[in-house]
Write a structure and sequence with these properties.
Blueprint (H helix, E strand, L loop, with lengths): L2 H16 L12 E7 L4 E10 L2 E10 L2 H14 L4 H16 L23 H20 L3 E3 L2
Parallel strand pairs: 1-4
Antiparallel strand pairs: 1-2, 2-3
Helix pairs in contact: 1-2, 2-4, 3-4
């Protein structure tokens, strides 16, 4: 990762950690999932309202490290207003980006989420970044659920 990209990565992580977007709970959620990363202690509660197969509202609550919080914040911005299928597609691309070492370094479809590609350099932090996404996947699959990174 170049120095400019590393600085951008750090700036975006810090910004979304200090001022997380969509933090809280959705009133009258139609879908919900909780996630837990025992290695880091991250806990997330994700609530969504899906109307006509589109995510009309999404919010997260809980406590976690800067990467987990920033990932949840960025994720909620990325999938809000998207269809369930679009959100599932973004999940797949994001997971590939952060977990597969052979994955391309640039993912233009992911927009701001692309800065989280830097977690590939820190394998122990991948679980922090992916936790909110697994909660999203569980919520979309069944309306409620609990996931863990272990």
């Amino acid at each position: 990762m170049t120095m400019d990209l590393r600085e951008l990565y750090q700036d975006v992580i810090l910004d979304h950690n200090r001022r997380p977007r969509n933090k809280g709970r959705v009133d009258e959620p139609t879908h919900h999932a909780d996630g837990y990363n025992p290695l880091c202690g991250d806990m997330i509660s994700l609530t969504l309202h899906i109307d006509q197969n589109r995510i009309s509202a999404i919010a997260f609550d809980g406590q976690g490290c800067a990467i987990s919080t920033a990932s949840a914040s960025l994720m909620t911005e990325a999938v809000k207003g998207k269809t369930v299928a679009e959100a599932q597609s973004i999940f797949g691309e994001f997971q590939s980006m952060v977990t597969e070492t052979a994955a391309p370094l640039e993912h233009p479809d992911l927009g701001d989420l692309e800065v989280l590609a830097g977690v590939r350099e820190y394998p122990v932090r991948i679980k922090c970044a992916i936790l909110p996404w697994h909660a999203l996947k569980a919520a979309l699959a069944g309306g409620s659920g609990q996931v863990t990174t272990e």
